[in-house]
Amino acid sequence: APGMAGLRKEGNGGKGMKEQIEVAAKWWADQFRHGTKQDNGDGMTTILATVIGSRIETASKADAFEAALKELLPDHLLRCWTPEDPSCGSSLRCLSCDYGPCQLLQEAAHRAGIDPFCPPFPMKTVMWINPDSVRVKHGYGAPDQVLWTKLEATQ
Fold first, then answer.
1. Which residues, in sequence order, are bridge partners of residue 1?
2. Which of 80, 103, 112, 135 is deepest in the core (most CB within 10 A)?
3. What is the pTM for the complete model shown?
4. Which tens digit of pLDDT belongs to each residue from 109-148?
5. Spatial contact of 51 and 43, defined as CB atoms under 8 Å apart
6. The three-state (H, E, C) secondary structure of the chain, written as one string
7. What is the C-alpha to C-alpha distance for residues 148 and 136, in angstroms, rounded to an integer?
């Protein structure tokens, strides 16, 4: 992908941020492909949002969203990419959706022809993309879910 050229490499056989970007973009696009769980802590709103935003109309838009996010993420992550101290700056490398998506997710949606202010973005969701892991909290009060770790990638 054009935005992935020239990424910094980590030491010890690491793969820079390419794997993290792949995992993160796929997770967000899969929320469109398969329908997302909507959980804002209020059962009635959650049910309504899940029904309304269960899936986007075409798989090609999910694919276009994934490609756009992969293109946008390198510049977003490089602002504070610190392999020597992976948790430093983590809040600057997150993607989030409270009741609406963060600016970067909005831009990827716009490029893919998806209305960023209508579900299927998962409410109350935050993802941290770090040099050593990709983690997500999906829904109100949800626990961290580890999607990728550097340890898994090197085994």
1. none
2. 112
3. 0.78
4. 999 999 887 767 888 899 999 999 999 998 888 899 999 9
5. no
6. CHHHCCCCCCCCCCCCCHHHHHHHHHHHHHHHHHCCCCCCCCHHHHHHHHHHCCCCCCHHHHHHHHHHHHHHHHHHHHCCCCCCCCCCCHHHHEEEECCCECHHHHHHHHHHCCCCCCCCCCCCEEEEEECCEEEEEECCCCCCEEEEEHHHHHC
7. 10
